[in-house]
Amino acid sequence: MNQQQRNLILQSSSNFPPPKGVKLSYGTAGFRTDATLLRSTLYRVGILAALRSLKTQSLIGLMITASHNKVSDNGVKIADPNGGMLSQNWEPFADSLANAADPLQLLQLIEEFVRKENISFDNAYSAEILLGRDTRPSGESLLEAAKQGISSITGAIYHDMGILTTPQLHWMVRARNMGMNSTEQDYFEQLSHSYRCLVELIPDGIKGRKSYDKVVVDGANGVGGDKLDVLKDMCGGLSIELRNSSKGEGVLNEGVGADFVQKEKVMPSGFGPNDVGLRCASFDGDADRLVYFLVQPDSKVIDLVDGDKMLSLFALFIKEQLDVLKDIEIEKPCEPYHPRLGIVQTAYANGASTDYLKNLGLDVVFTPTGVKYLHEKASQYDIGIYFEANGHGTILFSDSVLSWLEARNSELSSSSTGSENQKAVLRLLAASKLINQAVGDALSGLLLVEAILLHTGWSIQKWNELYKDLPSRQLKVKVVDRTAVVTANAETIVVQPAGIQDAIDTATGTEEVIRVYAEATTQEEADNLASDVAKLVDQFLGLRSSQ
């Protein structure tokens, strides 16, 4: 790093002093807090994005959003070259950058990291960043801070893609680095084309839905509803009624959205008795989560069809196509190829869903809570499916399975055009293009659910009857230090402090809290069990135990 570059960082960073008494940490959601505290952070993440681009010699994404948080919050996250989240190895550096006290300390941190990572400022590659933001009023000023940070790295350039869903930006980064067309229009065209392909491949004999059978979508008063309004007109025959778009009078995520619906299990604002029996869905604020629900008569309570149910629907569909392909006979002799289908869940998944999937003969594994763990594990399969109950998840198709499917399609095109085998291949290929493989995406997820329901001829009621959720209760317990809890077996067993797991066994038979998730055969038993375990946690770790 030459003196001109040092001076540029020192000069520009002096315009973005960090707020006093605020310490930020980069996690799965990136940085996220009150928007008024984030200008210096956005500036510094702009620098981070440029350095990441130089290190990887690839395009990097920077998204300004606070997802399902209240409208006064905002945040920022990085999209790596594959469209996924920032490498965990860079998270400590992100923390250090955000919390550097002054320009000199900031420069020192950057120089040390550049040396450690062997990042060159002198090669032919210039850093390149894609920028996006959601509909929050604070987004525009924070975007300008990010641009200043990027521009403080000599030669770095950015492309402002405007207002996007978070998954759109991740998709664009992945597509661009794969050499594919990567504009927002390309995104819309790929999703709509893939959806139409799946609809065209609906099995003979399965009747389509009646024309009035629509899906009613809650857009969380955010960006997702706006984008769905564009996409729905490109899908041909899909009837969508959109409510709670950002163009209405509602407030982002206030009494609306997937997070609200999934946690509160009540219908969002704008829904009522007239929606009883209709297929309803809800996005979160930046459209990376999706849940479905059914409005109940004479009640605000809903039947929730959550991420576990979506995972089960997708797994059933993928398994059905793979089962058809097991018996493919090809003329050219070759080694048999049997794609490995894996299902990845966390300890928060409802036990009934896990039992259902295992009873289908599927390989179900658990990871610690967090998308980064789920995504990494799913990528180890030929086809890996992961979803959290909150509606965030996706399907990953390996390069090898896509190559195999393309080869099978070529062979079947010459020998068995229009056969069930070829249709199964084409369905899997269409699904791989419809689902956003970079990150969970409410738009692509909605279209895949709708296509599969058409494929099966199922109503939302029949889908919801795949299995009955075990009653559950989730609580938070205030503790002195949540890091004192050490878990094993994907957070299903407590190792430390000693004794608490034995006590829990007896019972069962980012603030300093411990989350307790309990299941039982009735809601009353689940509530009682959660309460018992919460008391045990408080006994071992709670605020009272420290006094």
Give short descriptive properties of this protein.
547 residues; alpha/beta; Alpha-D-Glucose-1,6-Bisphosphate, Chain A, domain 3; 4 domains; 5-stranded mixed sheet; 18 helices; globular; A-D-PHexomutase_a/b/a-I; phosphoprotein; AMG1_III; isomerase
Overview in brief:
With 547 residues, the chain is α/β, with parallel strands linked by helices. Helix content is 41%, strand content 18%.
Task: Please tell me about this protein's structure.
- With about 550 residues, the protein is of the alpha/beta class.
- The strands form 5 sheets. A 5-stranded mixed beta sheet has the order 1-3-2-4-5, sandwiched between helices. The chain has a 5-stranded mixed beta sheet with strand order 7-6-8-9-10, sandwiched between helices. Strands 12-11-13-14 form a 4-stranded mixed beta sheet, sandwiched between helices.
- The chain is globular and about 70 Å long.
- The chain folds into 4 domains: about 5-180, Alpha-D-Glucose-1,6-Bisphosphate, subunit A, domain 3 (Alpha-D-Glucose-1,6-Bisphosphate, Chain A, domain 3, 3-Layer(aba) Sandwich), CATH 3.40.120; about 215-305, Alpha-D-Glucose-1,6-Bisphosphate, subunit A, domain 3 (Alpha-D-Glucose-1,6-Bisphosphate, Chain A, domain 3, 3-Layer(aba) Sandwich); about 310-440 and about 455-465, 3-Layer(aba) Sandwich (Alpha-D-Glucose-1,6-Bisphosphate, Chain A, domain 3); about 470-540, TATA-Binding Protein.
- It is built from 18 helices and 18 strands.
- Helix 7 (about 185-200) runs antiparallel to helix 14 and helix 7 runs parallel beside helix 15 (about 440-455).
- It comes from Chenopodium quinoa (Quinoa).
